[in-house]
Design a protein that fits this description.
Elements (H helix, E strand, L loop, with lengths): L1 H26 L25 H8 L74 E14 L2 E13 L3 E12 L2 E14 L4 E11 L5 E12 L3 E10 L3 E9 L2 E2 L4 E12 L11 E13 L5 E12 L1 H5 L5 E12 L1
Antiparallel strand pairs: 1-2, 1-13, 2-3, 3-4, 4-5, 5-6, 6-7, 7-8, 8-10, 9-10, 10-11, 11-12, 12-13
Length: 336
């Protein structure tokens, strides 16, 4: 009797297991896009509707208290979890209203979010246009003492300007003293106008003093930053009586550190006709090659030491000036 009873119990256990496996399919239905075995279906409804969708969401949703419902149980609406509409497996709800787009409503915010409020100008500056401010600058490029074979002396090169980044008015002066008297000096008043990103034109007047009678010139030229960071300056001069002159300068800054800078500089001067009263010959007058090593204590102040090799040619060398001269210099450079 025991063996038939054990066989009957085993048969009942198998039937219960089969019924338990079939219950989710009968009560829950298949998930959208899935077959009855839990694998993706070959095709899903195109319009997004599924007869089992509401039952599946009711069964899989979790109430606010965190307890899982029994399969097939009905969950009250206030405890249902509505899936996000942008989820790929979420059904489309047609009661959400139209999508965003089209014409804005009459009370929509301004495109610039200003709500019609405009910022007043600040002390005459147009904030929308961004006016180019004017400012003053002072460059003391050379203020130095000189020691040479003919004796000691002083040299200077100073220029100050006022204007904006496109137009500026410059007043510049350079010269030298030796033996307690003024050897030569000139003063220039130039209007500078930007014509390219790194190039400016210059137009103005120049006046020479010291070392003979004064001379006046009309000045014109260009200055700017050439490739490989070479500063170039070329200026031509025209004076009364058919006098002409030209000056070419080039310099470069070699940075050993952010404060220690070596600056080579080359300058050439030429005159169209001789001027014996000022000790100048025609043609190439002189060439100066300088080498100055400066240390920027601050960006505005930099003391330096260096040397200048000077070579005079033709009539300029014949008018009481040595053809070759080596100068030791020490000074300070100031930029304000």
């Amino acid at each position: 009797m025991r063996r038939p009873a054990l066989a009957a119990l085993a048969w009942l256990a198998c039937m219960a297991s089969v019924q338990a496996q079939e219950m989710p399919d009968r009560h829950m239905g298949a998930m959208p896009g899935m077959d009855h075995h839990g694998t993706p279906a070959a095709s899903a409804p195109v319009d997004g509707h599924d007869p089992h969708a509401s039952a599946a969401h009711d069964a899989m949703a979790m109430p606010a208290d965190g307890h899982h419902p029994m399969p097939g149980a009905t969950i009250p609406a206030q405890h249902r979890h509505v899936p996000a509409t942008d989820h790929p497996s979420a059904p489309m709800h047609h009661d959400m209203g139209p999508m965003q787009g089209g014409s804005p409503p009459p009370h929509a915010r301004d495109p610039d979010y200003s709500d019609g409020v405009r910022t007043p100008p600040m002390h005459g500056i147009d904030m929308a246009m961004g006016d180019d401010p004017r400012f003053a600058t002072l460059h003391v490029d050379r203020l130095e003492t000189v020691h040479a074979s003919r004796g000691g002396g002083q040299q200077w090169e100073v220029q100050g300007g006022y204007g904006d980044s496109r137009d500026k008015l410059w007043l510049r002066s350079e010269g030298e003293r030796s033996g307690g008297r003024l050897e030569a000096a000139d003063i220039e008043l130039l209007w500078q106008h930007a014509v390219a990103a790194f190039w400016d034109t210059r137009l103005g007047v120049r006046s020479d003093t010291g070392g003979g009678p004064g001379r006046q010139w009309v000045a014109f030229g260009v200055q700017g930053l050439a490739p490989y960071w070479f500063e170039l300056e070329a200026t031509g001069y025209v004076g009364p009586g058919g006098r002409t002159a030209a000056r070419l300068r080039a310099d470069y800054e070699l940075l050993f550190t952010q404060r220690l800078v070596l600056q080579p500089e080359l300058e050439l001067n030429a005159y169209g006709k001789a001027d014996p009263a000022r000790g100048l010959g025609s043609g190439l007058s002189d060439v100066a090659l300088g080498l100055r090593l400066r240390y920027e204590v601050r960006r505005e102040v930099a003391p330096y030491v260096g040397g200048v090799w000077m070579r005079r040619f033709g009539g300029t060398a014949e008018h009481g000036r040595s053809g070759f001269e080596w100068q030791w210099v020490a000074g300070v450079r100031i930029r304000l």
